[in-house]
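To assess whether ligand presence alters the predicted conformation, the chain was also submitted together with calcium ion. Input:
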Amino acid sequence: MPTERSAPSTPQHDPVVGTVRRSTIGLVLVAVLAAAAVAAVAVEPVDAQGAVTGPWLRVFEGLLVVVGFVGLRFTVRVATARREWAAFSFLGAAGVMAVGSLVLLTDDPALAGHFKGDVAQNLPQLLAGPLAACGVLLLSRPVRGFVEGTRLVLDGVLIGCGVSVVVWYLALQPLSEAHYGPQGAPSMAIAYLALDTIAIALGLMAMLRVSVPLRRNVLAAVVGLCWLMVGDALRGFEFLPPGIPELSASEACWALGIASLAAAVWIPVGGATEERPRHTWWWWSAMPYFFVIPVAAVLVSAAVRGDLEPEVVVGAAVIIALLGLRHVLTLSENVALTDRLTATVRGLEHRAAHDELTGLLNRTGLIRRLDGMRAQQEEGRLCSVGLVFIDVDRFKGVNDTLGHAAGDAVLRAVAERLRTVVAADGADAARFAGDEFVLLLPGVGEPAGVLARAQDALDAIERPIPLDDGGEIVVTASAGVTIATRLDVGEAMVREADIAMFEAKSGGRARIEVFEEDLRQRSEVRMEVEQDLRRALAAPDSQFEVHLQPLALLDEDRLWGAEALVRWRHPEKGMVLPGRFLPVAEESGMIVPLGDVILAEACAAAVAIPGLIVSVNLSPRQIHDSKLVATVRQTLETQGLAPARLCLEVTEDILVDDRTITVLENIQGLGVRVAIDDFGIGASSLRQLRRIPGAVVKIDRSFLENIDGERGGDDRVMVKALVSIAEQLELEIVAEGIERQSQLEIVRDLGVPIGQGWYLGAPQRAAAFVTERGGRPLVRRTPRR
Ligand code: C2E
Ligand code: CA
Ligand code: CA
């Protein structure tokens, strides 16, 4: 294809600007040639057939076609194959018109019969309209499928037929009858007119469909078609004797038609970024129907006058048949469209109410279902609804340690199991958010029934979940239960179950809690604490202080270390102990930034007392924080504390998880000590201790409570056993909760080397602790995070 596509752009030469300049030159040339052709029509002689006989008109027409071809070479820049073919169609149309006007020159009246000659001679010229119409259709946006294409062509044919019948009846037929008598009807005229109007109709429809950048090109082509039709129509009147005019207006129109088609090729494609207008002109697409109305009028009038010609009848019959066909097509298109629309709407509705990952109802779907149940309840068809709120325990840890793909697999597995649990009796399962699920149990009135289903759900969740990498994971979940005999607002019910679930979590996880009113109060208190905590953390002056409690070497009555214990100096409530706010901090994730502050202050205090080991508590959330090890390393560096002087305490519960053991190993890898806090009351086994060599084991204070009493024998045996195990495994042992001299003596006699408790020293503000023990003044450097 002779096109010039995106020439490489250099700073000196902008191809777009170049194209625009060339287009201007081309269009000016076209305009000059068109004016010259019209002038030639005016000055050159006209023969008896109404054709211009001088040579110059033909020369200018030929030149217009040539200029058009040159334009094809230069202007098709935003070229698509479609545009090239369209340009070829325009030039083809212009070409056959030029050839046709040459034919007019020949003396042979049969050949010159642009109006009355053989079909064979007229055929090339008849092609001009359809060719140009093809061009505009090609330029407009591609036709979608056979049906749309057929409808488009039908529309054009319908309009063409309608116009032809009317023009025939009103003008051509009476005129030709007047001049030639009933036999001499110029039948070819109707063919020209029909084809011209069909082409123009298609052109107008293309105007509607075309994208903005190509609109001017299509417009120029349609204008060309209009000139063509006007020329053909005028020719009819000129040709009728004695109408031979001095000036052949039809020739001028044809020349202008050729010029417009050449211009359609030269006009540059513009504004490629513009959008097509959004609105649809319904009346435009209904155009074929409008054109039928005058045909009906013609039929009626002809019937009344009794001159119903076969041409009119055939034309009308063709129109009716086409109209029927077009209607069938439109209907089938509509049916297909409606089907697509229905499917889309259904899909959207489903998606709006369902969760993409698990396919369960989502929050919207759940609330909708609850609303539906409320309606049922109001009609008396439903007595009560049980609702179970389920939250996967420590799900964030799964995501953080195993990745989101594993997290998704867990959620899908949980959803699948919940689906099975609710499979019967119209119950529903929903994914409320993240790792939160809700079971809706309509008609389950008594708590025992709901509790049983909740327990089934938790049991199902606890079965091992296979992972893609071939491994397995076991997760637990906590559940809150509520029963409504009168549904008010669905969301309130979910909230109640959520509160109960939170209680289950706080109570140690993997449990079920039933909602009661006082839970709501507790939950409100918790909310208040959470908001206070958030404000305190954001406040410029820290409200949190670290207190230190001594850890003493029992044999030598000397300081071994100190445990850092956080206190919250609340501006209104005074000193708040960790038991009041740490669970909230843990649940909300605020423990992580708070923990960073505590760690930094504790390290700063340890630096002030030479040789002191500072022990800092880590909550589960902190252990699962992927940045923990980096933060610890960073803090030690910033504060300038040797790693061996820091000990991090974790509760033994977290030891059941292999991945947290890896975290502990990494911490030990830094040279930092690890302590197992509250040992003996949690869920780990002694076997786990072997995996963290060198750890400090802090015997829970419940072992010491009665160790000096009458029934303290068992506790003494336990402590003794722990001491010997610790010796075997090279662990350090600490006894917590020494409140009396007697307790101290017993644990010392049992061989416990280190002790902690009020008897040995209560927690005390870090600064006071340091001063009392002759340390350097406390200098706290700001932590990085
Ligand atoms: P824990 O780690 O077992 O800390 C020891 C708790 O026992 C402290 O309570 C301490 O004041 C108390 N205690 C000390 N000696 C005695 C005694 O002789 N008898 C009795 N009955 N209690 C004694 P506290 O400070 O209220 O801390 C409670 C818990 O809060 C801690 O238990 C620890 O799990 C957590 N915690 C405290 N500070 C932090 C912290 O900075 N970060 C984290 N993550 N948790 C902390
Ligand atoms: Ca502790
Ligand atoms: Ca403890």
